[in-house]
Amino acid sequence: MAFVMTDPESPRDLWVSDINLRKPRLLVQSNPDIKKLKLGKTKVIRWKSFDEKTMEGVLVLPVGYKKGQRVPLIVEPHGGPMGVRTVAFNPVWQMLAGAGYAVLAPNFRGSGNYGREFVRANIGDWGGGDYRDILAGVDELIKKGIADKTKLGVEGWSYGGFMTNWIITHTDRFKAAVSSAGLSNLGSFYGTTDIKGFMEYYHKGFPWISREIYGRSSPLASTFKVKTPVLILHGEADTRVPISQSEELYYYLKKTGVTVKFVRYPREPHGLREPNHQLSRYTRMLNWFNTYILGKEKQGLGSYFGNKDVANLADDIRNAQAFIDTWFGRFLLGCACLEAEEFSEAYSEFEKYLKRRGEATSVHFKDLPTYRYLPPVYYYLGRAQEGLKSPAASDSYETFLLIKEKGDGDWMVENARQRLNTL
Fold it and tell me: Which of the residues 270, 277, 280, 390 is marked catalytic?
């Protein structure tokens, strides 16, 4: 039999075994380069909530964390709300850990995997007990001396986006928030979503019958004055959580003077699929947290390397080993062109030089050998140290600047400075 297996330090790999699973054998390793990276330690933690119920979650510590050190904390509520966080490899958690953040992924009441009573515990109570479960987990990490209470952030997708919206409209403890495909107005959401029965189940009927439940569970119904800077991300083709939910949130925050940025992804459904959009999401999220939690300037090729020509830029990338030793460095190198408009012209010239020499090929992403079956984020993370490996700085994911190297068939930009110097 064949099966997929993962652990906190390994992406999902393909294994084979006899039917009794006595002698599993690794068949395909999705990204061998992961073993070369420094990763944050992952563990399960437990805490008591407001009603003395025991809650559980996954905690990822920053790379190189030392006991007793207080660090910035990002809270990531899951979707569902019947989703669940398990001890597994998560590239986003590790990206944040490489950037110096701890990550708390709480399994609040309403999560799956804990039995019927637990998964039904937030029916008619979105933003009630589940919200208090999350804050109790944050308080526990502060009490244990892990989290810095002055450097908290929150981000989530779908119901995680709803919970992000709920948190910012009920507390100012968080210094930055990233709301992705989140619900903000449950009444209007019912009329536009493709899961109306789901809403009737969780809110005990139609919105015109259970008006009080829909109202009290809507983030935008809160009278709390929002202070947290918010980055909103949403796909324009989302029918599960239509983009109108983020539009309502955006105009509410904008009209009330809150720092907010709204990024719309064309063609995208409920979950980003195009590689450029995925990389854009993670880069923007990390920059948002760095800016409003750590007080850092936006990081990209321009800000990191300075205003240099393409030859020196490529040389810097190949030699910046201290920088790319962390997960964050490799991730940033893999997608920085998307965020560095000042380098788009230089990158375009680089492309022209290579094409003139007959060394470049433009291919569709699906034509990439082997890697077309893997999440693109793994491909870029694993190959970033080999040179300038990034899609062209555009909204389209279909064209990549690539060089075919003889041998193992990998695509990379090799010896960039030497090639440019021979022009």
Answer: 270
